[in-house]
């Protein structure tokens, strides 16, 4: 049994096809097939049922693959510990960011970070929170930036900042004439929401009161996967929505943007990794660079009410 063989069966479990698994492992299909068969012979039983399409792990295979993932995680941790140079950042890292953060946060810090640490290369994916959690546990992601707490013992959270929720209102809505909005004034009537699967949607609903009538007064309902689409609906003089502060960072003087009365509802933004992740220098420097580019009102201490999504 070798580390390479364990990597092959984990890849085959992930992709469920020999061609895709071999490509992911940068070997030929015959090479992967032979090594998997050798491991099965050593185990004295089949790891995969090849009679199904796509192939499926056998009951024995599920146990072997689960243990293989643990072994590979420990092996890569050992590699990282040996290779990690505290004076610099090197390597290729798979980074995921949730859709309600990616278009606003990444442009603020990414260019400067990569210029400062040119040997750190990020492969960036925009993913929803539940998919990120799954990928971290599967080992297909190195780290992510999303909203916490996750309350997951397999995931380590490194909090960075509290981002306020703001109201983005049309001129025809009653909120437009207000300077500050109270949380208990936020109801589903005339409220535009992100569609299901977004943690931001769950947080908005947790802020809302009287959940009985989403968009009832407008005579139709609409849900989007984009905060920018929701803002455009509001700009068409239809209702209002809630947005994270970074989404309106360049609209400080826009009268459609309203703050909440203190304590402001906020979301906690964190770097998250699998509990076994050992690149401490990367986590430390990434957190430093993100915080350095944020507006002072986000990073300074203030009264807030953290809104959970799980």
Break the fold down into its secondary structure elements and pairings:
Layout: H1 3-15, H2 18-25, H3 29-43, E1 48-49, E2 56-57, H4 59-83, E3 91-97, H5 102-116, E4 120-126, H6 129-138, E5 143-148, E6 155-169, E7 180-181, E8 191-194, H7 199-207, E9 223-224, H8 227-235, E10 240-244, E11 257-260, E12 264-274, H9 280-292, H10 296-299, E13 304-306
Parallel strand pairs: 3-4, 3-5, 7-11, 8-9, 8-10, 12-13
Antiparallel strand pairs: 1-2, 5-12, 6-10, 6-11, 6-12
Helix pairs in contact: 1-2, 1-4, 2-3, 5-9
**Weakly predicted, low-confidence segments:** none
Query: How many DSSP H or I helices?
Result: 10
The top level CATH class name of the largest domain: Alpha Beta
Number of strands: 13
Largest sheet: 11 strands, mixed
Strand content: 15-25%
Radius of gyration: 23 Å
And the CATH topology of the largest domain? D-Maltodextrin-Binding Protein, domain 2
- In angstroms, what separates the terminal alpha carbons? 40 Å
User: Which structural category do the helix and sheet elements fall into?
Assistant: alpha/beta
SSE string, helix = H, strand = E?
HHHEEHEHEHEEEEHEHEEEHHE
Helix content: 25-40%
CATH superfamily of the largest domain: Periplasmic binding protein-like II
CATH architecture of the largest domain: 3-Layer(aba) Sandwich
How would you describe the shape?
Answer: elongated
Q: What count of domains describes the coordinates? A: 3
Report the average pLDDT across residues: 89
């Amino acid at each position: 049994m070798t580390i390479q063989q364990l990597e092959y069966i984990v890849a085959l479990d992930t992709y469920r096809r020999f061609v895709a698994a071999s490509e992911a492992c940068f070997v030929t299909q015959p090479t992967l097939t032979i090594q998997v068969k050798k491991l099965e012979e050593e185990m004295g039983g089949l790891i995969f049922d090849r009679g199904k399409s796509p192939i499926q792990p056998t009951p024995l295979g599920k146990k072997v693959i689960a243990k293989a993932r643990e072994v590979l995680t420990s092996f890569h941790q050992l590699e990282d510990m040996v290779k990690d140079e505290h004076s610099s950042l090197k390597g290729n890292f798979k980074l995921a960011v949730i859709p309600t953060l990616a278009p606003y946060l990444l442009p603020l810090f990414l260019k400067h970070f990569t210029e400062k640490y040119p040997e750190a290369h990020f492969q960036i994916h925009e993913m929803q929170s539940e998919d990120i959690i799954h990928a971290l546990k599967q080992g297909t992601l190195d780290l992510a930036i999303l909203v916490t707490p996750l309350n997951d013992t397999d995931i380590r959270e490194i909090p960075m900042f509290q981002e306020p929720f703001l109201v983005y209102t049309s001129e025809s809505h009653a909120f437009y004439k207000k300077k500050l909005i109270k949380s208990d004034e936020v109801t589903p009537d005339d409220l535009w929401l992100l569609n299901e699967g977004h943690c931001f949607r769950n947080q908005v609903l947790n802020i809302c009161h009287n959940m009985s009538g989403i968009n009832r007064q407008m005579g139709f309902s609409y849900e989007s996967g984009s905060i920018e689409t929701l803002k455009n609906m509001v700009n068409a003089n239809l209702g209002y929505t809630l947005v994270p502060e970074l989404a309106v960072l360049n609209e400080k003087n826009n009268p459609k943007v309203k703050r909440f009365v203190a304590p402001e509802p906020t979301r906690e933004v964190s770097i998250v990794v699998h509990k076994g992740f050992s690149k401490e220098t990367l986590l430390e420097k990434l957190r430093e660079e993100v915080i350095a580019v944020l507006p002072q009102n986000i990073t300074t201490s203030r009264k807030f009410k953290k809104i959970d999504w799980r």
